[in-house]
Fold these 2 entries.
Entry 1:
Amino acid sequence: LTGTEGPAALSPGGLSWAVHLRSPEGEGKEETLEQQAEALAQAAGLVNAGRIGELHGHYLFVQPAGPKQDQQGEAIRQQAEAVLAGHEAVHWHSEQRLLKRAKR
Amino acid sequence: SVHFNDPKYPQQWHLNNRRSPGRDINVTGVWERNVTGRGVTVVVVDDGVEHTSQDIAPNYSPEGSYDLNSNDPDPMPHPDVENDNHHGTRCAGEIAAVPNNSFCAVGVAYGSRIAGIRVLDGPLTDSMEAVAFNKHYQINDIYSCSWGPDDDGKTVDGPHHLGKAALQHGVMAGRQGFGSIFVVASGNGGQHNDNCNYDGYANSIYTVTIGAVDEEGRMPFYAEECASMLAVTFSGGDKMLRSIVTTDWDLQKGTGCTEGHTGTSAAAPLAAGMIALMLQVRPCLTWRDVQHIIVFTATQYEDRRADWVTNEAGFSHSHQHGFGLLNAWRLVNAAKVNRHSRVWAAYVECLGEAAHASTIACCPACLPTVSRTDLELSGLKTLEHVAVTVFATHPRRGSLELKLFCPSGMMSLIGAPRSMDSDPNGFNDWTFSTVRCWGESARGTYRLVIRDIGDEPVPAGLLWRWQLTLFGSVWSAVDIRDRQRLLERAMSGKYLQDGFSLPCPPGLKIPEEDGYTITPNTLKTLVLVGCFTIFWTAYYMLEVCLSHQRVASRAGGRHGACPRPHCSRKAREEGTELESVPLCASKDPGEVEAEGGSPAAPSNPLVPDLLDQVHWSPPQHVKCAVDAPPQHLLQGKEQQMC
């Protein structure tokens, strides 16, 4: 992540979503995307943790840090899903799950 | 003629096998010609790299490194309770351990630079994988990944959406547009009857999938078979056979050196090291060139159990060994003369819809025919990877067997039955791939044969849809044969010796996202330092102003708002004078002490002397003038004084 905090640091054990935004037209596309990502994350009740590596238009939104309860988590999930699914600028989104990887 | 003083080098049989000559990677001749990976950076994506190790430090690349688990630039492994985070360091040592340092061992590409991305020591998500695969991708040339989904014989997993996108982006934009090289280990699930075609990293067309063979050239007990395997190289076998000797961490139980590195984990870094040697002699090899050269140069060898089959283009492939053993000499010599002129082409044939779902047992064969007209648009002539995406339901996934037949009749077991896989969901658009038809004509009829080998009385599997995707080049069969001959002619080594070199395009300038991030600890330190500076500045200003006020009140206001501080005897006594002199006066404090014997400001000779110099040049002893920009000194008297 290019932001100042990684997903683990921002939201340890919290929820996070990868979001692919549709690329806007014209100049200053990157700035527009950044602004759009900020606004969208805010609308979804999440924090924009920055662009995902080198993937243009892909951002990670994370649950804000702080004490949480399961019920709150579910409410955050529902709100985030509803906002992300309904927003026209969102090309694709996916809640981030833990992957199981083994050394060989 | 290659000798090193590293104590374990004689035991590194994979580099120079004296007990069984020929059963090594054939690298010493390449080293003798000064091909050691110089100018190439290999990054180990793993649980960290102990870069302070004597064997790693001189070749370590901090620029290519990162810690995604702690989100800082240092990939140093963290000790854990299982003493298990030595994995990345071992892999790094295989690639780039420094020779002739009287310590441990030697790396395959000991002249290359080695970086580490720590990502396996904590929670891992798709987005983190995506970041790892493109991290510093204009610095790192080769990504060595000795890990993957569980090899338990029942997992079907691989890179998810972002990981796939990052792999694709890496081969398109990484390494100045020549494409990042992703080397992956094929898996250790042999004992669980696993197959690497159920591992999406191994299946990916963007990766170099490397399997292991033991010192005798046989598939070890732990290794997996698959149709997507490109080649094999050496690793440990059973207990009677030697493992790989390499650098180790020296934390916890580590000694800095190990003789026990094994598994496909140990094979993949050797391949990464050999590719580094290739890139030294020809830095502009594209990711596809690297795959092609591996296919063209890997050597088939006698192993009846391997079930070698030679395809229509003359390449021998085995599900156990891919196209054969990697050979550093052959790889480097081929790289030296390789011209990359192939356009990459893809053709997608979509087949089947949900409305036509068919019972697998009733519809064993699906027969799409790809004609010349179909291929005209893409220009595709000969095959490289053939991918089949399947959406099928079955109450016991492991009972399914999928075979793909290319037009030549070449069979690939793309989906091997797995006794331990009892998943009831089948395949949800899983993509299998094969490289066994490499170089063959793309035209003709493809057959996908699915069998239900389960014991269930009523076959219940349904094939909902499947899709055939052909990847290849515009080369004709004749071009392939010409290329084979060209590369074989280079195997004498004459092009390595002659100082021969083909022109290399410079590559693209692709900006990289500024990867440096400020960690919370660094941020806190900066804030503390900032606060301290502000506090000290305020204190200092207060001190100066107070002393000035005292001087002004004593002088009776004769010098306006800015009396000269050294006029104040009290200030001198209090020790504040030295601090205030550089701000307003032009004299060195020492000079002030010597020349300004009198505390009386109005008669101080320094002030008029300085102010009267219109064409002033800073004398050596004038501290203020040296520190300040010259134009400041030419401003008005008021400013000069303050």
Entry 2:
Amino acid sequence: KNKQASITSFFTKK
Amino acid sequence: MFEARLVQSSILKKVLEAIKELLNEATFDCSDSGIQLQAMDNSHVSLVSLNLRSDGFDKYRCDRNLSMGINLASMSKIMKCAGNDDVLTMKAQDNADLVTFMFESQNQEKVMDYEMKLMNLDQEHLGIPETDYSCVIKLPSQEFARIVRDLSQFGESVVISCTKEGIKFSAGGDIGNANIKLAQTSNVDKDEDAVTIEMQEPVSLTFACRYLNSFAKATPLSPQVQLSMSADVPLVVEYKIGDIGHIRYYLAPKIED
């Protein structure tokens, strides 16, 4: 089963 | 003082249509170089990045950097009041809590002023790393919209696979399976009808259909769309906005649990 990743796990807060 | 004039107000109307399904509100960052917007959807699965360069406007002035927090449903109501051929001017004073949208008919016989209250939004900008993508695909934007719409009927997810031979979109669910393959076009009359693939390595990633459908709301902005993919990183879906800029959508993939 696939799980939706969050965009924040790829791009970090500036 | 901030003032930006756009002879084709339809561009901003289309931009708004392209973001308002994903975002309830957003900050428009205005500076000397133009207008930028970066915001995540509520679920933090996708990121919208809009860039409108100052030199693409018919007139542009921004004396001091200005961040305008805007409720997009409210802005959409105002933009619907503009005719497609009206000339748009956005204006705000420094440190203002209001922005004015002025629409003028081509013959200047009708002038409309709409003032909208600005909001204080928490500004959270994400750093997007420079990436050399394994696959960069360009295809007609209407074709992309059609494919994601059609595949959404089969399941919540679509698998996008790119090889040298072409690009394949697949979905499956209770009613069965669907596969759509597009090969690179060899010769087309119009550039905008072309499908082109630049591939370093084959990639296959899974994405949620509903976000791809929301991105496809940008279709009226550009005849072509560019998809950039690498293993285990977000997909980039980019639409050029005439000579003025672009809108990019970043979508986190679905990964094996």
